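Ticket 4471: requesting a sanity check on a complex prediction with NDP. Repro inputs:
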Amino acid sequence: MANIIDGKKIAAEVREEVKREVAELKARGVTPGLAVILVGDDPASQVYVRNKHRACEEVGIYSEVHRLAAETSQDALLKLIAQLNNNPKIHGILVQLPLPDHIDEKKVIDAIALNKDVDGFSPANVGNLVIGDECFYPCTPHGCMVLLDKIGVDPRGKKAVVVGRSNIVGKPMAMMLLARHATVTVCHSRTRDLAAECRQADILVAAVGKPELITGDMIKEGAVVIDVGINRMPDGKLVGDVHFESASQKASWITPVPGGVGPMTIAMLLKNTVEAARRA
Ligand code: NDP
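Returned structure tokens:
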């Protein structure tokens, strides 16, 4: 039976760490500041933004939320980002995605100053991540790496398989594992034999968005399984991309859903904001 990776507990530890770091920075006269921009009234986005604001308050990070109407023009949004780029109180800027259709998401993300891109989604930040220069690690895959570290699993020399190649999870995850000297395979919807690829993995990261796609028979005995997936079932229950019951018969460590990777994402956003303030 696998050990459970307690993301809730580890995220709380990270938030405590951040709290101490914020106190140290404040003692030097710097209060880390995060600006979150929300365009429109998507209910899920509103919840995420509220949670981010609350999490900032809890650790002493100054946070301001800019709520803009859905019909806000792209120019107005770019103007606000330019102001925040020049605002010394603000060290991190986050634009909650998705944006309304009339706004070019790429243009907006690219307008965020590189040293304030705490989400880590801009092309320049991603480029730095790939070449191993100073950058911000995108929060969700960064959270996965911290989970591995906290349970004492070093990716060096291990075979890692990442299922999913999105820009926000799969690709940066693969890059971070590579930077930590894992041998990395990235699988996606065109992968010919997903089960065979997964069975090679010492570390398996699932970021697909397909409920319980990965079952126990696809997991190598003793593997570490990190399930990024969050899928809401018709009965309201949340499940991951991994079939937890069968996978935990084979894995040595596994993240539950909920309570695994989920809580780490905001914790890593706080961490990145403090890092941005420290660099400034
Ligand atoms: P995307 O939809 O952007 O990407 C999904 C990836 O999975 C794609 O690369 C796709 O391949 C691949 N894929 C789809 N079907 C299959 C299949 N049958 N076999 C193999 N690969 C497949 O999703 P995200 O990366 O944004 O999110 C993934 C999951 O993680 C979702 O459940 C999401 O809710 C969750 N998530 C959780 C977060 C957290 O905080 N815990 C944060 C972000 C996401 P292709 O590229 O070929 O289409």
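Notes from triage: The chain has two domains: 28-115, 139-262. Leaving this open until the requester confirms.
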